[in-house]
Specification:
The protein is 55% helix and 7% strand. It is globular, with a radius of gyration of 17 Å. The protein has 222 residues and is an alpha+beta fold. The N and C termini lie far apart (43 Å). It has a four-stranded mixed beta sheet with strand order 2-1-3-4. The structure holds glutathione. The site of glutathione has 13 residues, from helix 1 and helix 3.
């Protein structure tokens, strides 16, 4: 089998792309990486040409396997977990694994206000805003998920379920949003966010994000 190709968006802006990129590295699966710049002038036409050519939904990430494309971040992460069960992308304990799946599903489908109002922008540092009540609710829920899982399954390591899992991968983009907008949560949550941002695979992603030439004006203006 040829190594799969992971199509991603700008590393500075594409939170959905970051997750399978981290998961594939965590699984130790070799992959080719193709970055399609999102946004900017003339993007509408390019999207159709470049993103639609590799992804049926016109969104990234997409993973091209031999003759099959996976067009969703969670599906790609599940594929990686199944390819390399020994990498422990999900917790070994069945109950912890079920809760971890619920946590990942919640991040994949939820936190809409936080995602909309605090757009991911890895290299940016700015101040907090007048967050909407829905966004403040999301932040309260975020800290609760982090603290509750760590209280039940955590250990001396910084992660939510002891060993690092897909839950930690899924929350890494959120940690960048806290940093970008100067959002403070309780001390334990902030230490967890710092651990996510110090994880070497994220640091490698960030290094690339910092030197990307693209700037999406509408995101930068938020
Ligand atoms: N549910 C999808 C969401 C993917 C998604 O929305 N990707 C964004 C980039 S982060 C995208 O491709 N947007 C296309 C656009 O903005 O034109 C997944 O989990 O992979």
């Amino acid at each position: 089998m040829n190594p799969p190709t992971l199509y991603i968006g700008n590393k500075n802006y594409s939170s959905w792309s970051m997750r399978p990129w981290l998961a594939l590295r965590m699984a130790g699966i070799a992959f080719e990486e193709v970055l399609i710049p999102l946004g900017g002038e003339g993007y509408g036409a390019r999207k159709i040409a470049a993103v639609r050519a590799v992804s049926p939904t016109g969104t990234v990430p997409a993973l091209a396997l031999d003759g099959v494309t996976l067009w969703d971040s969670l599906a790609i992460c599940e594929w990686a977990a199944e390819q390399r069960p020994e990498a422990g992308l999900w917790p070994a304990d069945a109950t912890a694994r079920a809760v971890c799946r619920a946590v990942v599903a919640e991040m994949h489908a939820g936190f809409a206000a936080l995602r909309n109002e605090a757009s991911m922008n890895v290299r940016r540092r700015t101040g907090p805003r007048a967050w909407s009540p829905a966004c403040l609710d999301d932040l309260v829920r975020l800290a609760a998920v982090w603290n509750d899982t760590r209280a039940r399954w955590g250990d001396e390591r910084p992660w939510l379920f002891g060993a690092r899992t897909l839950a930690d991968v899924f929350f890494t983009p959120v940690a960048t949003r806290l940093r970008t907008y100067g959002i403070a949560l309780d001390g334990a949550s902030m230490r967890y966010a710092e651990a996510l941002l110090a994880q070497p695979d994220f640091v490698a992603w960030e290094r690339d994000a910092l030197v990307e030439p693209w700037s999406i004006a509408q995101t930068e203006a938020l």
